[in-house]
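User: Hi! I'm working on a homework problem where we have to compare a predicted structure to a textbook description. Could you give me the structure for the chain below?
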Amino acid sequence: MRLALGIRYNGQAYDGWQSQPSGRTVQDKLEAALTKFTAQPIRTLCAGRTDAGVHALMQVVHFDTTARREPFSWMRGTNRFLPDDIAVQWAHPVPDEFHCRASALARRYVYVLSQSPVRPSLDSGRVGWSMHPLDGDAMRAAAALLVGQHDFSSFRASACQARSPVKDLRRIEITRIGNGERCRWHFEFEADAFLHHMIRNLMGSLLRVGRGDERPEWISQVLAARSRDAAAPTFSADGLYFMGPLYDAKWGLPDEATLQAGRAPYDGPP
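Assistant: Happy to help. Predicted structure tokens:
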């Protein structure tokens, strides 16, 4: 049978999602837990690889197994063998033609940023930080120039293995929570797919506009340049969360993973 799992994790302690010889990845921990639970080797595929320090609110994986368990048993049994900062949120049997990556219709991320004259402490590693006040209207004007189907080479890491730099960036929503010099910003991104480091590179450039170092129109110049050198440096991974992929309702996955159900609200750190 083929099974899909929804996974949530804090990425601070890990070298990203993808398995590495060090064993310090989310995939390594998940597969070890599944192997212990089923007493058979389990290999997983994920909807979107996350880098070191990046978190996930709903990573989706699938795998094939001969083990038979009830969905709640997959969740509870696997969580028994996982570290405290990784947890299976749901389990659902799916048809053999379901593929967590290829079947996804969209992917979503949120970047959580603390604007404060003092660096984060209790939430260190879970939020990005700007000591400078940010202009929300300027950042939204810049973000509007990024929405649509574009060549995002200027925001692509040199190690990116994507076949094409052209992506359909469908939505960017920028929300401020709180007033004064201390507040939170949420930057939500939705696209058909993302390039390696794309969001962190977009964040670096949006914040350059927000600080007043560049005008919003500068973003169009960066986009047109199709050169990584034209954009701002890659921003910190600390506040980046994979909100998860969205699928057609025909797969029967939970509402938060289906496109027709709408967008699940961000429910990360306060």
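For your comparison, note the following. The chain has two domains: 2-103, 106-241. The beta strands are 2-9, 45-46, 55-64, 86-94, 106-115, 128-130, 148-151, 166-177, 183-191, 240-246. Good luck with the assignment!
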